[in-house]
Amino acid sequence: MIRAPALRGRPGSSSGAAASGASLLDPETLTRIGGLELVARHVVQGFLTGLHRSSRRGFSTEFEQFRPYTQGDDLKHVDWKIFARTDRYFVKEYEADRNLETCLLLDTSGSMGFQGGGVGKFRFAAMLAVSLAYLLLRQRDRVGLCLMGDRGPAAIPMGCRPGQLTRIVSLLEGVRPQGNANLGRELEALLRRQRRAGLVVVISDLYDTPEALGNGLALLRQAGHEVLVFHLLDAQEVEFPFHGPLEFVDMETGESRAVDASQAREDYRYQLKRFLESTEDLCAARGASYLRLDTAASLVVPLTVFLAARAAGQRVAIPWR
Amino acid sequence: MALIHPLALALLGAGLAPLLIHLLVRRRGRRLVFPTLRFLVASPARRLSLGRLTHPYLLAARILVIAVLALLLAQPYGTRTPGAERTSSVIVLDQSLSLQAEDSRQSARKAARAALAELGPEQLAAVVVYQGTAQVVARLSTPAACLEALDATLRGSTDGASSPGSAHGAAGLLALRLLQGQPGQRQILWISDFRGDDFESLRRRAAQSGISWRTISVSQRALANDAPAAVRMEQGDGRRLRLWVDRFSDEGSRGEELSWALDATLPQRLEGALQDGRGVEVDLSSEGAFYRVAVALHPGDAVDADDAASFRIPLRTTVRYAVLGPDPEFVVQALQSAVRVNGLGLERWADPAEVQLLVVSDLASASPEVKREVADARRRGVARLLGGALRWQGVHRRLARLHGAGLESLLPVTLHERPLLESVALQEPKDSARVLARFEDGSAAVVLASSGGTEIVLGFPLTGPPRGPGLESWFPSLLEGLVRELIPQALPSQAVRPAPARRESALIEPTPPGDAPVVEAGWVDPVVLEQEGGWARPLAVLLLLAALVEGILARRASVGR
Hints:
The complex is a heterodimer.
Chain A: E1 2-3, H1 16-24, H2 27-33, H3 36-47, E2 57-68, H4 80-86, E3 90-95, E4 101-107, H5 121-138, E5 142-148, E6 154-159, H6 164-173, H7 183-193, E7 199-204, H8 210-222, E8 226-233, H9 235-239, E9 245-250, E10 256-260, H10 261-285, E11 289-294, H11 300-312, E12 316-317
Parallel strand pairs in A: 1-12, 4-5, 4-7, 7-8, 8-11
Antiparallel strand pairs in A: 2-3, 5-6, 9-10
Helix pairs in contact in A: 3-5, 5-6, 7-8, 8-10
Chain B: E1 2-3, H1 16-28, E2 30-34, H2 56-74, E3 76-80, E4 87-94, H3 102-118, E5 124-130, E6 134-141, H4 143-156, H5 168-179, E7 185-192, H6 200-208, E8 212-217, H7 220-224, E9 229-234, E10 240-249, E11 252-261, H8 266-270, E12 280-287, E13 290-297, E14 309-314, E15 320-324, H9 328-340, E16 356-360, H10 368-379, E17 383-390, H11 399-404, E18 409-413, H12 418-424, E19 433-438, E20 444-451, E21 454-459, H13 475-486, E22 528-531, H14 536-557
Parallel strand pairs in B: 4-5, 4-7, 7-8, 15-16, 16-17, 17-18
Antiparallel strand pairs in B: 1-3, 3-22, 5-6, 9-10, 10-11, 12-13, 13-14, 19-20, 20-21
Helix pairs in contact in B: 2-14, 3-4, 9-10, 12-13
């Protein structure tokens, strides 16, 4: 298990270069930048200094190993100097430049439209998705986008062409979260489209049944996908800072419920805590990396976790503050 | 307390609006979209019942603000009518040896009973009887109780011999002590033959304590001469000289009242007024600030000097001099003049200490010296300070400054009363006005206007064109309102009388009464409107601020912060 680096910076919360960079990447600051593409460039160029490596070996400039020649190998890869010394045929292998295929799975259900006081859950999710896409495309990896909502599948196929980021941004700019999402069904549909193993990044508030979420994650893992789950929550969802009698309206179903917020606060927090713990355990059980984020957190955190997960291929656990 | 606009109280009903809004909004609860309801359990209906208010202080502040605003619009005021207050009286009855004659003693007792009977049931009375010693017969209680106690005491002492001496000093002290600290008007009614005793020090002490002094004289000498009548005199209120002549016969007694107003024209009016052949002769002579009245009862022809009982009457005529005008210098001049009685034609009228000034001014532009002068005059009790405010003419903004100047009350003034000023016709040479003093340029400084039993002395600028800038718009209306308050009844139209000749160099020149109609010098005290809403404005501002702060805090504590 990987412990996330201490980069969960809030503006002015810490000192040093990391804190300074984090403050530049906090959602409030990024919102003032403008478009998602520009946000992504700002985030990635300001954050990333190295490259991630491919997990596949190939023939490139970086030497990997020697192996005995087998029938079918191209003779141009045979190392003739070793043949002169040992009178045996060896093939020289290099680290492959094969592209990583990453699918960004973004929840567009109505609950993602909640905006307590910050930038809002969907805006945060969009900024995170575009930043990841820009990061991947910058490495010439293939990236695709799939929206999970009740308006039918909307997706940008895998690609690494220069216009891919623009297409992703255009799709996200036109989306307004609404309706109800079925995470399990969407994950199954993704599995049908994405047969080649890769990385699946789920950005959602995960308001679905645990069974559906668990089944979907299990299917993805069985197909060889690496899954990274970003669980988005607004600060007001966690703290529940409401008072007095209120009529709560469900953003997905439209159902309303009269609640005395002052009296229901403790029970709400307890139920939410249980939900978060069970979701995290579910992800761990299905071999998916799980990271809980609130919309006021810096984008440095998910990017760091993403690279860490990509490099180590291990599950990531971030202690919730 | 009364209201100028009682209909505005209907706005009090609007105070229910915040309550209804509060309950209706709270009953349903504020709508709030939320990502999911899976962690929320519906609250039982009783938790959202009407019995629990979410922001009671905020609700109370809102209701209170509306109530205060309604009261402000209604403009409450109180009426203070002099004389309506409760009067505390102490009757001091002389039973000393000088009243040995049974008839004289009975006459004194009868006068005491009559005095008690005259008091209303709501008044308080006490009785002190003295001869060689002084005794409190009845402490302050109802007149009926005092009468009962007096009768019981006198019945017990009918056959007893009187102790020698006259403890009138002790009796006076007892009377003063009984009245000490009593609210309202206080008076001492002394029934005696007033022979051989000096009451002047007691009278002065009573005056210093604000206690009026009335006397009923029982003339022993007249009775000793077998005169069929007795006279008692009262000058207690300082406004009128009253003589009661009781004539006795076999059929009983018959009272007759002779009454004259105490003012500068009294000697002229008494000259010949009492030579009426009714057995009473009055001789009036002047002694400084006092008149000496010698009264003789004589059934026969001539007045026997030995039979004359003399009374020294302080001329307690209260001259209320209304200084109307915002000119601070003139206010000071009038204050100093009136206090010194060195001008304005007042010196013939009154004891300086009895002069009262009615200063009507907001003193808003007055210098600190002027305000000190006014405050000093008020402290000495020679001046009252009334203020006026023109309603709805921006003068309400002056109210705080008016109160800051130490005003006793406020007079609301309305513009529609302007024609009244013209009908009053105070400016020279209008009919009902009499110039008492002039400025050096000859214009009227002080004018006496009279109507019926009411008299008002008005000063600049009502007597002349306004001189200060910006005063034309509102100050005449203020004066109109004042005149309306002081002279409630319409002034009768009278024939135009030529103005008296002016003296070029005279600053102060009293106008001789001439053939002016005799008026009573006493004033009918005006019913003064006391604005009671002065506290409401700052209170309303405080409540509004409190409601605003409370609202902000409640907003922050509520949804969507």
